Queue: 3 jobs
Job 1
Amino acid sequence: MDIVKEVLDKQRKDLEKYKPITVEKHLEVATDLGHLMVTDPNYFDDEKFKADHEQYLLDLTRDNTQLLINSIWELPTDRQDEYIVAKLPVPRTVLPRARKLPVPKPLTKWEQIAKAKGIKKRTRDKKVYDEVLDKWVPTYGYQRYKAEKEKDWVLEVPQNADPNKDMFQEKRDLRIERIAKNEISRMKNIARTKKIQTLRTGFLGPESASAKELVTAANIAKASTASVGVFQEKLSNEKVARGIGVRELIPGSKRKRTPLTLPGEKKRNLDIVSKVLNKKPKIDVEKAISLQKAEARAEREAASAEGAPKKKQGKKGAKGSFGRKKPKGGQGKRNHSKRAVGRKRR
């Protein structure tokens, strides 16, 4: 009996790990199987969420997912390659788009012409048979260029052409020019689709030069030759840049001597001199009165000093005595704090 009880307890504990597939809700959830979406209108318990938010959200998610899976098993099924597939219905909920609707790609200039004339695009094979090389060569790509180089190992020089001219280099230059022309056409198509203003000679951008800068560069380039532009042919409708003349471009040419004084400088200097010479001194009346009073006081003190009676000077009398008064004694009022002056008697 004990063994049976242990087995039953173990089975019960194992069953407790898995929750039942039936879920009870106060309000029925709204399911949209087309989007595999469940909307739960039931009350959200804030107290349980604050107590243990992770466990509460986990239980809520598990219950709603179980309801969605139960609804999926009620749909009609079909077997495909040993798998059971459920046929989802048409979605009922209108979901907002994360981004705007894609805009159709605008047509290039050639596509517009082809559409107007009814020209259809032809598909080309990746390789074609070349009778000269007697082998299959690519229709496009770098391998095609290598095949053309093998085929054109010799080129005919036209009758009127220069016999010393390199025909291989001319063909290479024409190919590079054709590639550059195609690239310009591609960039123009991009600028047209994006509604960017372009010029006839190039593209409008921060690196493009203005008409004034182009004229200045053309004049400088013309004067940069060995003859300093003397034997250079003039272009049609050629313009001369302002501020850049022949004297500025030709080194060592005689230039017009600039005046020592600028126009109007003489008049300004005369105005400054006249202002300095005609400047009236500023008189400080109070300071002058105080100085005058000080001089009068000094004169009075000097006059009073001259009119005072002069002190009698004693004549040189007895031995070692001069005509001066004998210093008086302390008259019985001796100050012990002061130090005695003179030689100490013995």
Job 2
Amino acid sequence: MSEITLTQALQQASAQLNTQDARQEAELLLCHVLGCSLVKLVTDANEPLSDNEAVTFFQLIDARNSGQPVAYLMGYRGFWDMDLAVTDATLIPRPDTELLVTLALSKMPINAVCADLGTGSGAIALAAAKQRSDSFWLASDYSLPALKVARQNAETYAVKNVQFSQGAWATMIAANRLDLLVSNPPYIEDDDPHLETGDLRFEPRSALASGSDGLDDIRHIVHQAPDVLKSGGWLLIEHGWNQSEAVQNLFKAAGFIEVSGHQDFGGQDRVVMGQLPSGKIPV
């Protein structure tokens, strides 16, 4: 056994980490190594780490100091009521995206047919499908490695009402098929300096950036949505903190009604949703 206790390991790691949430990240990584809950770090504070546990833990601390995201180091990220597998092929699910799930659930009719475009780890589709077993979801992504992760998450949580498919946005969906279409697409400007900082440096650029104003992919989705939604169907899209007005204008230009913007749990504009008018014939 090593001579370092859980408390000493946490103190040393917190001092070594050059991140804003050093203590919290050290706790998460130590629990990951030990396969325990945060409670153990308090109840067994003076328990020594094994040599292997100590080496593994401080290797993870070094990797975190190099900038690698905690979620990638652990191999999962909590979202909704799940711990979802993530890899460097997927965007790391953020708590703010749970707003998209909440709003989607509020608009889903009985036996709803829905799609999640750019599903990544499967977070949105799996959370909503798990809550509503009567619904059917198509979850698509252009990235085959991302779809592999999403399928793994579906198997882990035995979610059977989601079908995964490779494709670029709504191109694989039949006309007038969906009651609900949701997406958390790339929406950062190509030249945004934040892409070179923090966790974003390690996440797939194709899942983050979208043109000079960040709206290229949102434009594609909004343009395609009226063709694949049923009359009266809903479109919900996550966007950047300063894009709500522009996205709402795109919805209105495409013929959507009941267009509204919604703030995330941090008070930032985050989701726009709108409804295809009843009786509208897509053009």
Job 3
Amino acid sequence: MQSLYWVLTWACHRKCVHCYDDRFRPYVRGALTDVVAEGQRAYEAILANLPDDMSWTDAAGVRQPTLIVLAGGELLIDGVRQELFYPVLEAIQRRWPDAPPRLSVQTTGDILEPEHIDAMLSRGVTTIAIASIDDYHVGMKGERKFRFMDKIRAMMAEKGVREVSLGGGKSEKLKAPDPAARPRSGEPTFLFFGAQEDLWIGELWPRGRAWANGLSNADYQTNFCARWSGAKNFLKMHEAGSEIAIEPDGSIYPCCLKTRSPLGSLAEESLSSIIESVSSLPAIQALNAGDPEGMGLATGWSREDFKSRSTATDGKGREVSNACLGCDRYFEEHLGADLKALRTARLVKKKAAQAAL
């Protein structure tokens, strides 16, 4: 894969109004222990079921290391950092000692300390993404976010971590001081991003608290599926554009917004076996093409049928039309059952093969 987006835990110190999943929230005492344990139980199996070859081929035919994006929740909070986050970084180093993937970490940055930077860099992290630069995160509204950015820049400078720009943003205040500068090979970097109007997530996803609070402005013309972190090209393992999203328990999805049901679980079986199996489904092929409207063509859903099922009422009582909603309906009526049947068949076959050894 070109990229893996791996949520290690639902635990977070924030409960942002625009979050795409209700499970990201504060957990305390035994609840925190339990939610972190979900990731602890699964991560070794997840790593074992990822490919030995963590690389992809770019447009010039050059092999590049896979990018693993580790996220929460918030990975730097007490109860997560030492218990799950650092052990996963160390396990990744053990899993691919000779040709390691690139590692990026997403954090809100508001609890980031110099010792956290040292700990991440020493465990192979190459990029630190500060993902709270928008007006939705408490304490970041208006000019306050830019004062916060200056604080982070000073901290990173002391550690020799170079700022880079995410790309796509129009505001000069959100770009690196020298956006054209390229980091030297092996040089650690950091960047800022958030739910800004001039980036792809500006419309917000029709998911989680963003949906419940009526904050999503995505309409039917907004095709998240065909954008980066959408489903487009996710089947093309080791090729440009391929990415999957992983939940703490190992469930995998073709997009970061996540479909109604997972494709399978890396806690149970290899990524290659899951991808090979689901690629036979016409609806999955449509998602891979970035064409969610075509998901049901093979089962009698016309494009107009899909569009008619792509409307729902959000938390503000607004009637909203969006292709993600149509995808949800198709999963509920057809694809979820198909994926479950394939998963059962794969696990039966795997059990029989193990019994034969």
